[in-house]
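Hey all, sorry for the wall of text incoming. These are the two entities for the joint prediction.
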Amino acid sequence: MARVIVDVLPKAEILDPQGQAVARAMGRLGVAGVADVRQGKHFVLEVDDEVPDAELERIAGTLLANPVMEEWVVRRVSDAEATAADVPGTHA
Amino acid sequence: MARVIVDVLPKAEILDPQGQAVARAMGRLGVAGVADVRQGKHFVLEVDDEVPDAELERIAGTLLANPVMEEWVVRRVSDAEATAADVPGTHA
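and here's what came out:
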């Protein structure tokens, strides 16, 4: 099993109302220093080792992202790399 | 300006209906080799260089993630690192 991460973001030229709402909320709440926020989707897939990169790209571009409005990056991660799935939420 | 990425995922012990829906849809569509999908949020922040890591953690844990149900990872990215925001969606 390999772990594959797909990060999806609205294209730069596409309005991002979710991100803008977060950025405005930060301003209202007194958070300083954040100039811009863009919000997208973060997928973590557990994939058989035999699945080739081309198939992962096809899955991302047809099932996880909308190519008309979104951009995406596919990356395989090693077990050593920390992901949100691995790190206990002890930050709070 | 620094670019900061915050990836948010439902905690491992929390049901992830979005990810499960994606995984089931893949099965129906004949995509083989994907054993599990978890879906979360991907934030890209443009932040002043003076903002310390502790403040970024506070922002992530109070405004971007719900610490009761979600885990998150905060990372500063160099300009050299590819993010979905930089890569044209020419995969399709």
